[in-house]
Design brief:
The chain is of the alpha/beta class. It folds into 2 domains: 239 residues, Thiolase/Chalcone synthase (Peroxisomal Thiolase, Chain A, domain 1, 3-Layer(aba) Sandwich), CATH 3.40.47.10; 150 residues, Thiolase/Chalcone synthase (Peroxisomal Thiolase, Chain A, domain 1). The strands form 3 sheets. The protein has a 10-stranded mixed sheet with strand order 5-4-6-7-1-8-14-13-9-10, with helices on both faces. Strands 2-3 form a two-stranded antiparallel ribbon. It has a two-stranded antiparallel ribbon with strand order 11-12. Helix 12 links the parallel strand 9 and strand 10. Helix 3 packs across helix 7 and helix 11 crosses helix 12. The protein is globular and about 65 Å long. The two termini are 23 Å apart.
């Protein structure tokens, strides 16, 4: 069977820089970060003060009370993003299409809010029972299952959990399933809501979180900033999109993934390079054809220098012509859903031919000597782009996107 072209026809997103794609893109254009002092009641006892929280979110604006009783916050974000994406793609699911549509999501931790509430009730409040729906609220596949039920989708549905690469792995799997004829369409992306007291204390202990803000590639960078959010994309065959007569945002052309097999937290340049090369190979693109990279760009000393070296090694002299930005400086590091947010942003960049900025940048670092689009969005004609994800555990996933023509 001939491989089929896979295009993106719907986008949905909820994040610290906006609760739908238009608001997100406007804040990107204005270089407006969503990082701010956290509002968690226990904030005073956490050593870092800033996070990237979703703002102006009222759950009852989106869900009935009985629905909220069985939806963890991460599932809420997954459903909201999926509904936006389906509406954006002008989709009406027929019985046949329901059978041929996949739901593939990524998350690192699943229902953390529910999990922490259970622990608090049992160990602090000395209660002797948990919420009757605790398990289906906590399980990492809850988001995918809720999306599947919301639209009656009976094709493949599953969740990938590979730390910060989860959503890129999900997108890549969805892309391959459609390209190879297993499915005709997919709802794919991810969601994450890690801003709970216990989880923030765990990140405090690992000492990679910045005290003020995220400054990727800046010499004075101090680390990452945790955030929350979700994003979902509608993928379908080019033939389907043309038949439906809907606008096409971009095309997914390649996917590459590797494992470092070296260290649980320290990233490997070799693994990152190979994932990039595999994505290029899968997309049948030469390195010189890439115009933009949405970098993993966490703002840690080790990651940003490693990623710069990997890009320079893969692209050679063309690295000097590439534009590379780290949008985690805007929406924070949302762990398992980060690459879904970054996919939406990369697709919008291709659509508008505008480079998203790396904000909060203050000082050049000789170890990060790339065009990192500092502090302001910039016009540039874009044909092909990559989105990098390099996760704890040494798990790497890179997606290649192309401007549809």
């Amino acid at each position: 069977m001939q491989e089929r072209r896979v295009v993106i026809t719907g986008l949905g997103i909820i994040s610290a820089i906006g609760n739908h794609k238009h608001e997100v893109w406007q804040n990107i254009m204005n270089a407006q970060t969503g990082i701010a002092p956290m509002t968690l009641p226990e904030a005073a006892s956490i050593k870092f003060s800033s996070v990237a929280e979703v703002k102006n979110y009222i759950p009852t604006d989106h869900f009935e009370k009985k629905e909220l009783d069985i939806l963890d916050r991460f599932s809420q974000f997954c459903l909201i993003a999926a509904k936006q994406a389906v509406s954006d793609a002008q989709l009406v699911f027929t019985p046949e299409l329901q059978q041929r549509t996949a739901v593939i999501t990524g998350t690192s931790i699943g229902g953390q809010h529910t999990h922490e509430k259970i622990m608090y009730d049992l160990y602090r409040e000395n209660k002797n029972r948990a919420h009757p729906f605790a398990i289906p609220m906590v399980m990492p596949n809850a988001g995918a299952s809720q999306v599947s039920m919301a639209f009656g989708l009976t094709g493949p549905a599953f969740t990938v959990s590979t730390a910060c690469a989860s959503s890129n792995h999900a997108l890549g799997q969805a892309f391959w399933l459609i390209r190879n004829g297993v499915c005709d369409m997919a709802l794919t992306g991810g969601s994450e809501t890690p801003l709970t007291y216990g989880f923030l204390k765990a990140w405090e202990a690992i000492r990679v979180v910045a005290q003020d803000t995220c400054r990727p590639f800046s010499k004075d960078r101090q680390g990452m900033i945790l955030g929350e959010g979700g994003a979902m994309l509608v993928l379908e065959t080019l033939e389907s999109a043309k038949r439906r007569g809907v606008p096409i945002y971009a095309e997914i052309t390649g996917f590459g993934m590797t494992s470092d097999a070296s260290h649980i937290t320290k990233p490997s340049q070799t693994g990152a390079e190979q994932a990039i090369r595999l994505a290029l190979q899968d997309a049948e693109l030469e390195p010189e054809e890439i115009d933009y990279i949405n970098a993993h760009g966490t703002g840690t000393m080790v990651n940003d220098a490693m990623e710069t070296a990997a890009i320079k090694n893969v692209f050679g002299d063309h690295a000097n012509k590439l534009s590379v930005s780290a949008t985690k400086s805007l929406h924070g590091h949302t762990l398992g859903s980060t690459s879904a947010l970054e996919a939406v942003i990369t697709v919008l960049a291709l659509q508008h031919n505008i480079l998203p900025p790396t904000v909060n940048y203050r000082e050049a670092d000789p170890d990060c000597d790339l065009d990192i689009v500092p502090n302001a969005a910039r016009p540039k004609a874009l044909r092909h782009a990559l989105s990098n994800s390099f996760a704890f555990g040494g798990l790497n996933a890179v997606i290649a996107f192309s401007n549809y023509n």
